[in-house]
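Protocol step 4 of 5: obtain the predicted structure for the target chain.
Materials: sequence only (see below). No template structures provided, no constraints applied. The aim of this step is simply to have a reference model before the mutagenesis design in step 5. Sequence pasted as it appears in the construct record:
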Amino acid sequence: MSKCEHCIVREFSSLKALNKEELLKMAECKTSRLVKKGETIFEEGENVNGIYCVKDGICKLTKLSPNGKDHIVKLVKKGELLGQRSMISDEPVNLSAIAMEDMQVCFIPKAEMMGFFSENNKFSLNVMQTICGDLKEADDHMVSLAQKNVKERLAETLLYLEDTFGTNKDGSLHIQLSREELSGIIGTATESCIRLLSDFKKLGLITLESKKITIVDRNKLKRLSEQSL
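Step 4 output (structure tokens):
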């Protein structure tokens, strides 16, 4: 079992506020697991009763729409926590978490986490700041949907994917989303997303190879994403 006090990923989340004694206590109660690409960590409506710390890998948080389609709400990377909001609100999770690549996650039960929350003011403040940050992201996304056209939103999303998750050795975006997943993020029909990607390719902004997308002209793509500002 890896020791929480030696785990570098805790420095990227609210857990960095825990002291050594609390980290030792957490190491005793946590469980670690490997999650294969495509597997579900938890489903919308589930009572998680704790939080997950992403030790390695990337997952998507999705929301089931009335028409039965899953829409990506957020992409979560190494070092982030899952389930903080539902733990604090004492409600079932309102999103599903699905691995986009092989992952390592640690689960910490709610009882221990709430003990840290009530006893460590800095930790509780960090958790609330993270939740506020998630709300700000949601607000920004709503504004983007309202004020930017689909072409601008696609440009913005491609830049976000490169900035946040990096690229592979061949220069392609590390996160490989299906056209349906990408269309769900930017709020358009899959056919429109496919057509826009083709337009971006013709303009020399990107190259396409199956699900692989490579940004070729970052400056033009950035100018395109900011046209409505």
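Step 4 remarks: The longest strand covers residues 50-56. The radius of gyration is 19 Å.
Proceed to step 5.
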